[in-house]
Amino acid sequence: MKQWHFFDKVYRTWVVYIIGTPKEFTDFLVKDTGYTAPVEELELEGSSGMCINICPDNANQPASSYVIWQRKYELGCLVHELTHLTMMIFEHKSVAIHWENTEAFAYYTEFWFNEITRTKRRLPQGRLPAEVMKV
Q1: In angstroms, rounded to a whole number, what is the distance separating the alpha carbons of residues 96 and 103?
Q2: Beta bridge partners of 67
Q3: CA separation (Å) from 41 to 38, 64, 106, 118, 133?
Q4: pLDDT tens digits, one per residue of 48-102
Q5: I need a surface site. Which of 3, 18, 35, 101 has the fewest CB within 10 A?
Q6: What does DSSP assign to residue 35?
Q7: pLDDT tens-digit profile of 78-91?
Q8: What one-character-per-residue DSSP string does 80-109 give?
Q9: Is 68 helix (H, G, I), strand (E, B) or coil?
Q10: What's the whole-model pTM score?
Q11: Which residues contact 93 (CB under 8 A, 6 or more apart)?
């Protein structure tokens, strides 16, 4: 499993991008995030990716963070999951999602696409949380 950690300075949000098997993903959720909801309910069978909000409601975490998982690297799936990520962060930060705000939505999704693809290209083996703070 490979993982890249990110911190968004605008919305002060941690995001982890993971490529690996469903088992590696669920192990990460339970062991590394303290995820407490039943992982069986995630319905990963046949899924190529997922974006999940790790929050005090479903994990032993004091604040929200987000995990994007992909079984294998596929750009279309990544864009799909980044759309979920943008919606989740906007909802959590009370940023309205409506026609008058589509540009902010598009720019934020583009920001994450560029950030993840650039970092993955530069650091193909992954990036740890401590490395994020050095950037």
Answers
A1: 12
A2: 16, 52
A3: 6, 20, 30, 32, 33
A4: 999 999 998 888 888 889 999 999 999 999 999 999 999 999 999 999 888 888 9
A5: 101
A6: B
A7: 999 999 999 999 99
A8: HHHHHHHHHHHHHTT---SGGGHHHHHHHH
A9: strand
A10: 0.92
A11: 11
